[in-house]
Design a protein that fits this description.
219 residues, alpha/beta, Beta-carbonic Anhydrase, Chain A, 10 helices, 14% strand, binds zinc ion
Amino acid sequence: MRKRTIWAGLMLALLGASGAGASGDGPGVSADDALKKLLDGNGRYTSGKMANPGRDAKRRGAIATAQHPFAIVLGCSDSRVPPEVLFDQGLGDLFVIRTAGNVADDVALGSIEYAAEHLHVPLLVVLGHECCGAVGATAAGGEAPGHIDAIVKAIQPAVEKVKGKEGDLVDNAVAANVQNVTAQLKASQPLLAKLVEEGTLKIVGARYDLDSGVVDLIP
Ligand SMILES: [Zn+2]
């Protein structure tokens, strides 16, 4: 019990959720509604009609004591792909994890588990994007210096999967990488697989187009 108390306290302090807000009451939307909110926001963004919601002092004050994000986004660290902007969402709406190539190591996985299990977020989007440098570097092959090698190793299976297929290698690998990461998360034990099976967490893959700004779901 002591271990759990320390863990919970640390997570609450780090992630800014109050004890009252984080226990039991989730964001109050279904996964399908959450996905619609994201895609509607992307529609506003691509049509230049952004609402820029929830970015003022009122919203900041309203969520200062508890967060109830309605979606988790595992996206790429690429500076051109900020989830709050391209989905036209505000403070407290999205629980975002960003790594180069939108791959999930244990720390990313733990962050996702926290949001899904503790904050009861119903939707997780794995968001890849056009011209991803991490995927491109993996496809190009060669030596990756330092810890970049860990990213390349994580993306490598996606590149292998699409080698020789029709179309652009990097774009095909971006989609395959999103599919691989999505499958990894759906099967992740002990938490995410259980939540998916119970129907309390939906995990979908998507691709962001750098030119049009459009987010398309990847089946
Ligand atoms: Zn990228």
